[in-house]
Amino acid sequence: MTKTNLAKVPQDWIRKQTLVNAERFVTPGLKIQEEKILGSEEKARALERELLAEVRDTVLSHRNSLFALADALGESDALSALAETAERGHWVRPDIVAEDVFIIDQSRHPVVEKVLEMRGGGAFVPNDLYLDDADQRLLLVTGPNMGGKSTFLRQAALSAVLAQMGSFLPAGKARMGLVDRIFTRIGAGDDLAGGASTFMVEMREVADILLNATPQSLVILDEVGRGTSTYDGLAVAWAMAERLAGTPDQPGPKVLFATHYFELTELAHTQPHIKNYHAAVREWAHPDGKTELVFLHQILPGPADRSYGVHVAQMAGLPPAVVARAKNILRGLESGRRWEPKREGDGQKELFVNPPVLEALRGLDLDCLTPLEALQALAEIKKKWAG
């Protein structure tokens, strides 16, 4: 209100602020509305606290009933999910028996199978598994990388868990006794902060298995002894396999042991409870001379003959020169020849330690050859085996 009109201000107006040429007033009604607005936030918070306290007290008064309802809903949800999965995946009910056996016909890995289905990667290849307390307590599984060894091991452990939690199994038929624990030695990892290398971590896991596994345990070993020298690792794996195989007086656990140490397959000849199995693979020869590996993903009786590691490295994208050099070194190692680092000018040296070349040289009658004929013979040998 301007100062010239101050006389017209009603008596109930309340002076609020004086300006240069005017006065500012507030009416009683506006004052009441201001107080309501300013206090509404605190009143709302107080009301929320009051209502929350009422809800809390009501919930606490029905605590036991609500917990029972939550348990029932959770159990129903889990069982219905398992039932739906079993129906869709054509799973079967396992026979849980008092015998010490672990038998699964046409076993499948539920996760890998579903991923293959979603990606359109073809049908999952099922495999049979037979473990008992008489002839087959430990299966040594050899074969190439990517051949299906790890999947075979893990689907066995998954089946044991599913069966004992009351679920059906992704299989054609299953019969198994109770398993008290599942021990696994899979993958590689270190604990550098704790001062433990990859091999030390692996050996700690191995020690835990050897000290705690019982005849009712299931042991899954996906490679043992890779983190040290070949002979050290082989020795540890060999001794561990012998210990796990057990004796007639002290039977060991049921074991699936995947390994690239082909020397371990000899254990099947000395240990009655150890049997050899392998991941099947076929070599497909192309008209251009190249060889392609076909992984069948089948686990069959008997040991494997090769690991095909160099071929898998080639599939992973290693440079051709590295792959060719690896193949050359591998041939030398398999023939018992000591490998030496490659040096400039070593081509001729490698030529004359190649077994076929040595046989060709031994077949030459040097007494009947002229110098020119000898040079021609060497040229033919070089052309044939050195390119």
Number of strands: 12
- CATH top level label of the largest domain: Alpha Beta
User: Which structural class is indicated by helix and strand composition?
Assistant: alpha/beta
Count of individual domains: 3
Strand composition percent:
15-25%
Unreliable sequence segments: none
Would you list the SSEs in sequence order as H and E?
Answer: EEHHEEHEEHEEHEHEHEEHHHHH
Q: What is the fold-level CATH name, i.e. the topology of the largest domain?
A: Rossmann fold
Mean pLDDT: 87
| Share of residues in helices | 40-55%
How many alpha or pi helices?
A: 12
CATH architectural name of the largest domain: 3-Layer(aba) Sandwich
CATH superfamily of the largest domain: P-loop containing nucleotide triphosphate hydrolases
Largest sheet: 6 strands, mixed
General shape: elongated
Strand order of the largest sheet: 8-9-10-6-11-12
What is the end-to-end distance? 110 Å
Rg, nearest Å:
38 Å
